[in-house]
């Protein structure tokens, strides 16, 4: 319940800031109509990231500056007990960051320009680079008990991060951008499908008093069945890592010739060692899965599941998988509401959801 209370508290904080603050942070309540320029100048507060001791929360504030025609994003920390907020990174148009994480109760990290930074939680501390990967990484997580970082990166078929960076440089020297498609997933919204596809990686983070180093990465979905068409191969959508850091559950779109017409998104379980093949746990459902979350003891995995193939507006149902027995059940199946996210209670006896 404490985690849910913290989340709701910070959502209220975000709405309050959005309504009351302009870019300069002055607490002047609106006395004029909401114009499009005023709307764009308002701060936007991101989701909170609670510290391991549950006393602090990191959050990103972003805004757009019409004067400079640039966006900005900076990181702040809130004391959950008092509500006090301290800005941690610079606030300047043109600067940006994403994906705040905690390394411990006194050290946090974030991504900026494709690099992983760390910074001490004390006034005047400077951010230093921990990991400078050759290509952009996203969806970063860290588990202190396993010493692993996990992240997603779009890579070429059967390529490492370094190999993909080299291939991308070669692509940049071509005199044309022609691409032949013989499948029906040539474009997704405003993005053309390319040879690069999102893959899931883990890597050891070696921490010492003087130097932090990231070891060789392991591609956790490399052992999925080979696909003859590289343009329609496996597409990783999202993932979550177990509390112990020993396993990962990820969402994957299986490759098929007509992926445009399919809503099928599966859930797979795999060890973070990369020594075993990913195990499919949604073999009996063919709709879209989303939002996987491990119980706090790591013994069960819950997720949301649409059950009607090809129906993007289907209701979400709650599924729970027991990892040791490989048994999957659906709960509250006849519920007339469609949940959008799941959170386990601290004792793993209840699930909280937002509808």
Automatic annotation (TrEMBL):
Gene3D superfamilies reported for this sequence: TolB, C-terminal domain
UniProt feature coiled coil, ranges: none
Domain of life: Eukaryota
Record's keyword terms, sorted: Signal
UniProt cross-references to InterPro entries, sorted A to Z: 6-blade_b-propeller_TolB-like
Signal peptide: 1-22
Protein's recorded name: Dipeptidylpeptidase
UniProt source species: Coemansia pectinata
